[in-house]
Design goal:
Number of helices: 2
Strand order of the largest sheet: 3-1-11-6-7-8
Pfam families: C1-set, V-set
Bound molecules: 2-acetamido-2-deoxy-beta-D-glucopyranose
InterPro entries: Ig-like_CS_Receptor, Ig-like_dom, Ig-like_dom_sf, Ig-like_fold, Ig_C1-set, Ig_sub, Ig_V-set
Organism: Latimeria chalumnae
Strand content: over 45%
Keywords: Disulfide bond, Glycoprotein, Signal
Distance between the termini: 90 Å
Largest sheet: 6 strands, mixed
Number of strands: 18
Structural class: mainly beta
Shape: rod-shaped
Radius of gyration: 38 Å
Protein name: Ig-like domain-containing protein
């Protein structure tokens, strides 16, 4: 309600003119501001709307930057944290999480009249991650076994210098995979590779002569 000329003089016109929208390839950013000039009464507080959507339910503050300009001068900014360069203006950090970058002028002065620009930047984190996996093939060696007929003996297979640690050692008797009677110990080398010694226990009897044993990883 306006009562007369005297009061009308105290009405300021704050025009919040434009919004720059930065659209990145995989982001959908839309920004909404007040279309017409914003009218504020001297001495009151006013908020200049700048609402944005990023096309996702969650707004990542780490991907967000907001800048407010007044007549070409930066007055407030959010970039990791909030920076206020001009007294009497504010942005709500909580509001940013909800897509509200509105600028609040707490005590409107004549000097506040002019053009306000809200710029919103939203980029997805472009950090690329590369995982390097190192492989080292095992070196196999089988020391000559010393076996005595009818006595429990051990066949040894050394599997050395391999990486990563997970490995399976199989014993094969005459082309047939053997189960049981084997155990292994694994040691770590200084260079990060591993040595495994696999031991296969057998009690050779006469028919085992000329039978070939092999270890396979
Ligand atoms: C945006 O934030 C301003 C200031 O914090 C508040 O006055 C206004 O109501 C908010 N707008 C919406 C749509 O939430
Ligand atoms: C692993 O095996 C190599 C031989 O291939 C040997 O020189 C080295 O000492 C062994 N490492 C361990 C920790 O036993
Ligand atoms: C052992 O095998 C070799 C070749 O496979 C054969 O020539 C030899 O006669 C065999 N010896 C015995 C004792 O069976």
């Amino acid at each position: 309600p306006q009562k007369g000329i005297g009061n009308r003089k105290k009405i300021l016109v704050l025009s919040c003119t434009l919004t720059l929208v930065f659209l990145f390839s995989d982001g959908h950013l839309t920004v909404l501001t007040d279309p017409a000039p914003v009218i504020a009464r001297l001495g009151t507080s006013v908020h200049l709307n700048c609402l944005f959507e990023v096309g996702k339910p969650q707004i990542e503050l780490a991907s967000l930057a907001v800048q407010w300009f007044f007549n070409g001068q930066k007055v407030a900014e959010f970039n990791d944290k909030l920076h206020i360069y001009s007294p009497g203006v504010a942005i709500s950090e909580q509001g940013l999480k909800d897509g509200n970058a509105s600028l609040v002028l707490t005590d409107v002065h004549i000097a506040h009249e002019g053009d306000y620009v809200c710029k919103v930047f939203y980029t997805l984190d472009k950090t690329e991650r590369i995982t390097l996996k190192v492989k080292a093939p095992p070196r196999l060696s089988v020391p000559d076994p010393l076996v005595t007929e009818n006595k429990a003996s051990e066949l040894i297979c050394n599997v050395d210098g391999y990486y990563p640690e997970l490995i399976s050692v199989w014993w094969i008797r005459d082309g047939v995979l053997q189960h049981g009677s084997q155990h292994k110990t694994t040691r770590r080398n200084e260079d990060g590779t591993f040595n495994t010694t696999s031991m296969y226990t057998l009690t050779p009897i006469d028919k085992d002569k000329n039978i070939s044993y092999a270890c396979r990883v």
